[in-house]
Amino acid sequence: MSIIRTLSTSKRVLNQLKHDKRTLALIFIVPPILLTILKYVFDGQSRIFDSIAPMLLGIFPMIMMFLISSIITLRERSSGTLNRLMTMPISKSDFIFGYALAFSIIGLLQALLAAGVMLGLLKVPVVGGTIETLIIAVIASFLGTSLGLFTSAFAKSEFQAIQFMPAFIFPQLLVCGLFVARNNMSRLLQLFADVMPLSYSVDAMKQVANTSGWSSVLIKDIIVVLIFALIALVLGSFTIKRKE
Amino acid sequence: MVSAIEIEELNVSVAKNIKILNDIKLSLPSGKIIGFIGPSGAGKTTLIRSIVGSLKITSGRISVLGLPAGSKQLRNRVAYMTQELSVYPDLTIKENLNYFITMMGINKKSSENMLSDLLKTVELESKSNVLVSNLSSGQKQRVSLAISLIGSPELLVLDEPTVGLDPVLREKLWKLFKTLSEQGKTLIISSHSMDEASRCDYLVLVRNGKIIADQTPQNIMEQTGCTNIEDSFLELVGGKE
After folding, report:
1. Which of A34, A76, A80 is nearest to A56 (CA)?
2. What residue ranges do the domains of chain A occupy?
3. A170: Cβ–Cβ under 8 A, 6 or more apart, which residues?
4. Which residue of B has its CA nearest to A241?
5. What ipTM is given for this predicted complex?
């Protein structure tokens, strides 16, 4: 693995996004707008909003980065650039980690903005603090990127890649504890939720919202999310082939 | 004759045992422009991808510059220009070239000179800060070619590099190919256009996954008694049927 090639790949991905101002605007503006809308959906029921908003901060970066990374990697696979790169001295890990780093940076910026709106403008109380909130949001974006890189291998078109969101992300969203506490669900769904990474990302955000400091439960949740993300990255690298 | 590429009993099949390449044997000279000529679907791209090592072959052996095709040691020595443009449309020409220069492991000190040389070679200096998506198809093709020239590779494998280009630009590119071959580089250029065949030093005529001739253009014309490659090709095909 080469640090220079990994960083150059990140820089290249960020440059691609820099030239696509509309996508950048959507990445950064949509989460704060959705949070603000939700605030007024629960107008007069601020306790409900205060309990949901931090969880959403663990969900938005994951969904956004999942979508963007799966589409941009699919483009790389279908346009021939990946094929060309694989005839060059770049390693698969340079490519994969370059992408992961670029999208984690975007995830951090997105989380900064969304957390700024949530904590500053919407006055959502978070016991655990801003730094912890941002760290978990970045880890969630890293998870979304890793899953996007992996699943892009199974899509033949951008249309199919988008369909992976309802197929792959929505079930996790339903059972992660955002709508109903997980221990109120059927046993089967609880077991399903236990093996889905989004559950741990949402749990980590709940921990930060309700408790201060780095509790062992919070650290365990973060480690589980990171392990899922790294497994997805490793599996993603297996889907990149020098020989077809 | 020093061989750049040696191919023995190459077979490539896809799903359900559909044979794309059938028992190919070739010995291709180094320092020459070698044309892979044949109609669309003949197997030229499959042959090219087997040579650059981006395709799993079913059986046979391919040696490129003395090493097995696809070897790690060949990644700095062989350049491949795919039929698709294989450039980033949402980056400028300069950003594309800089990225691929870094991927080839060229240090920062040499990269600036290399960037300006490449832009000069493909005559895109004035457009270096333009997004590739805003270029004409011929200009995009030249960006793709410039990427193939990074790092001064010994073997350039160019899959239909002149398709869709206007005659003036095509002429310029062929001059560039000649210059590169005079510098000792080996070029493999695929084309389905017979008028490009006469510009090559050596020809491999491909049809239905088989080699129907591999000789210099003069030898092929002498053997078939024809005055041009197109007639020779038809003669060879007729003779086979």
Report:
1. A34
2. 3-239
3. none
4. B54
5. 0.84
